[in-house]
Amino acid sequence: MSRTNLSEKACTVARAAEVFGDVWMMMILREMFLGGRRFDALQRQTGAPTASLSTRLKRLESVGVLRRDAYSEHPPRYEYRLTAMGRDLWPIVVSMKAWGDKWMGSGETPVEIIHKTCGHSVTPQMVCPDCHEPMQAHDAEPRLSTAFEQEREAARGKS
Amino acid sequence: MSRTNLSEKACTVARAAEVFGDVWMMMILREMFLGGRRFDALQRQTGAPTASLSTRLKRLESVGVLRRDAYSEHPPRYEYRLTAMGRDLWPIVVSMKAWGDKWMGSGETPVEIIHKTCGHSVTPQMVCPDCHEPMQAHDAEPRLSTAFEQEREAARGKS
DNA sequence: ACTACTGACTTCAATTAGTGAAGTGACCCA
DNA sequence: TGGGTCACTTCACTAATTGAAGTCAGTAGT
């Protein structure tokens, strides 16, 4: 699907990007978190061409992000459901929504997130799991593993 | 750049996806959060072809995610820096890293995130800003605005 | 019995985007 | 004079995407 091969890289962002670093992937995920299950619903709500949607769903299934279940044998009809792996993508979609609301939005948000346990409409926040303080880019410092450091060193040297 | 026009959609995930719903965009962002500033460093560390990198950087600049500063007049040399808008993308990249580490990783993470204020190596977590409980997909319920609901209703009806 | 419709797709030809390799321009260093 | 760096652009080629149309297995209506 993508011509580049990022999956052999050490960077796990690269590996994740290979899976859903694609507009349709993100639209599909958004739609599934909104409850979309069937091919034609996903198609209409994402606006993806049939062929594009089809290749993406196959890919997501082969990765393990979603499962394709028959809900009728005759005629054969299927629906797609997120697996645990797929549900774990929720923070990514929510982060994108938060960013989109803040920087690309036009005042009112199209979707509110209601926290079931407390009932409030919320914008989930990233916090440090140790000290529970909100975290942003400038609060963090990356520390590279030696293996990853070496991969980068090699890149620096070549070409 | 993308053939589809998602930016006029109400959904802010769609708008965000239009900006960086692309493998190279994500790789560039990862690299910039790791401290990459110059064209050739970004190229080597992301593995992007020059032309691809060039179009992506132009696009990110035009959106306002990064700024292109001259660090030398003669010869003309530039570096790229994230704006506030760009730094706000951090939660997305971190969420992707967390997902990649968990589901695509091979034991050891290539990059640790050190929380400067507490000094710990952490995996940032999404919490409800009201009750401070960790939040996942099943803790949340989406509520659509009437405008967005109408857009979807229209999609349901056509073709 | 015939026609239309639904759902989940495939196939196809035309268009568009992405690719590696090579080239450009403005310098610096020896 | 020759080579090297940096930040790109241009080009010919290949690969992916697109919209439209078609397929298959049924159900519903008249």
Characterise the protein shown here:
The structure is a homodimer of 159-residue chains. Helix content of chain A is 46%, strand content 18%. Chain A contains 7 helices and 6 strands; from the N terminus they run ααααββααββββα. The first copy, chain A, has helices at 12-20, 23-33, 39-46, 50-63, 84-87, 90-104, 146-157, and strands at residues 66-72, 77-82, 111-115, 121-122, 125-127, 140-144. In chain A, the strands form 2 sheets. Chain A has a two-stranded antiparallel ribbon. The first copy, chain A, is globular and about 55 Å long. Chains A and B meet through helix 1, helix 2, helix 3, helix 6 and strand 3 of A and helix 1, helix 2, helix 6, strand 3 and strand 4 of B. Strand 3 (111-115) of chain A pairs antiparallel with strand 6 (140-144) of chain B, so a sheet runs across the interface.
Task: List descriptors.
homodimer; two-stranded antiparallel ribbon; 159 residues; DNA-binding; 6 strands; alpha+beta; 7 helices
* Radius of gyration computed on alpha carbons of chain A: 19 Å
- In sequence order, what are the helices and strands of chain A, one letter per element? HHHHEEHHEEEEH
Biggest interface, chains and residues, is: A-B, 94 and 93 residues
Indicate the structural class of chain A.
alpha+beta
Strand content of chain A: 15-25%
Biggest beta-sheet profile of chain A: 2 strands, antiparallel
| C-alpha end-to-end distance of chain A | 26 Å
Strands of the largest sheet of chain A, in order across it? 1-2
Poorly predicted segments of chain A = none
Count of helical stretches of chain A: 7
Oligomeric state of the chains present here: homodimer
Shape type of chain A: globular
